[in-house]
Amino acid sequence: MNSILLFDAYDQTMAKLLSKLDQRRLNIIKYLISSDQEMAAIKELKNHFNCSSQTIISDLKQLILIFPDKLQFEMKYKYIKLVGSTPTQVNAFYPYFFSNSIYFILIRTIFSQKIYYISYMCEKLFVSRSTLYRIIDSINQFFTSYYPSLSLTMNPFTIEGPEREVRKFYYDFFEFGYQLTQWPFNEVSHQDINKISLYLRHSMPSLGLYSSHPMFPIILAINLIRYKHKDLVQDSYLPRDLSSLQESLTATKAQFTIFDIEYRLKVSINSEAVRQLLVGLAPHTTYLSIQALQEEIHSSHDHSQAVSNFFEDLDQLTTSQRLNPLDQDKKDLLLLLLYNCCQDKLDLKENENYSKMQLTALEIDNLKEKWGLILPGFNARLQPILESFQSHFSKELIAKRTAIMFSYVYSFYPLTINHFYKDYKRLHIAVYTSRSYSTDEICGKLHLFFGSLIEVTPITDTYFMEELDHSRIDILLTTYPLFNLKGITIHTIKDDLTTEDLGWIYQMINQLKFSQGQKEEWHLHKK
Predict the structure, then answer these.
(1) Which of 207, 296, 297, 469 is the most exposed place for a label (fewest CB within 10 A)?
(2) Cα gap 397→393, rounded to integer Å
(3) Which CATH number is 69's domain given?
(4) Strand ranges (E), 93-153
(5) Which residue numbers delimit the Mga helix-turn-helix domain (predicted)?
(6) What's the rounded Cα separation, in Å, for the pair 124 and 105?
């Protein structure tokens, strides 16, 4: 069995908050599902985790009881084999530990901001004072190692330290337990956070690129709750044009019925609130709106000419590839994203959570590969255009930065084959998962990859399944393959779209009836 990393670096950090027993059991799960061998020896597990065979066997029995629907084992001659359908990612098991770990329960209780004294906290957690002291000491040791500016104090219980660091910890904390669970906050609903997100994006369209990321609503909710309880970030790490936007945001509250949220949450969404809501979302040293950026660019003839040349070259490239040209609003937003990407201070620690919402290098490579298959030569011609832009607005060319710029351009040109056809029938797709935010994320990715070739209908409740009709829906993508809908093709997915899922949808699109002339045009282009 190959040596493996038991957690990603981030997960490994947050897992240190678990008890030693829970850490070992979670690591056993990761070890087994990551193994490249069919069977694992108990002796091998014992040596790897530095414990007795009896301990390993006891842990395995408990894991079967805890996860009867996820883990099934066969034991033969001191060997163990996973059987049945087992999740391929360890994060499928996080929610249990997040919900049941006494360390995590304590921190979630503290986050609620209610004043719990020692005696009440002991009753809340069903532990003795001595046990509570040990838990607090363990959490403070964790902070010393991974968040050295923070500490857990009592009477009242609170996490003390610079507010930006406190929020960063809570971002990481809730991300760990948010993998497959329901909305984790009682103080504010997911629907309210989505409404606030739309409100912010109205004046700050650059936020829209990340608003479908699972962490976006989590960060926004944490910021809102901390602001509500008057825990404010006081530092000056702000986007350049935030002050000019705060006034216009306040003026548009009625348009987005923010007053209703203010009344229910008993909080005022004013200029200071906007500043606090953007912590971790709007990167320091960048622009949020195109107006302020255009003023800076127009103040420099060289920069103004560089932008003009960039869009001229991009238009020539996309026209040659038969992609529809961008309208001015989309060009403005693309300029905003590319310019911000070129800022040399974008990797500041204060921008860490923003950086988490970028596509990974592997995800960008996969995107580039797909584009290369459909539009041969597109990537090779786009690269020097992006590098030329970068050379005008940053001190040095950085490959990682160029890769991110590729992903931005892709987001404005959905990876479709629709530009090869004039008339076509759209594929009607319905999406249902157990989590509304997962459904929204999958719908967003479908639009990104297939654009106007499809129409997507998110299903928010099984009740609406009865209303699905094969005359309006061709395909149902679902994590629950239990529905029997006459005339509708059901395709089972996991919690995210895989390359295989996308390939299958492409095949379904290609099965639609196009005219023979259009088919010939496609084949000629491929040649």
Answers:
(1) 469
(2) 10
(3) 1.10.10.10
(4) 151-153
(5) 89-174
(6) 10
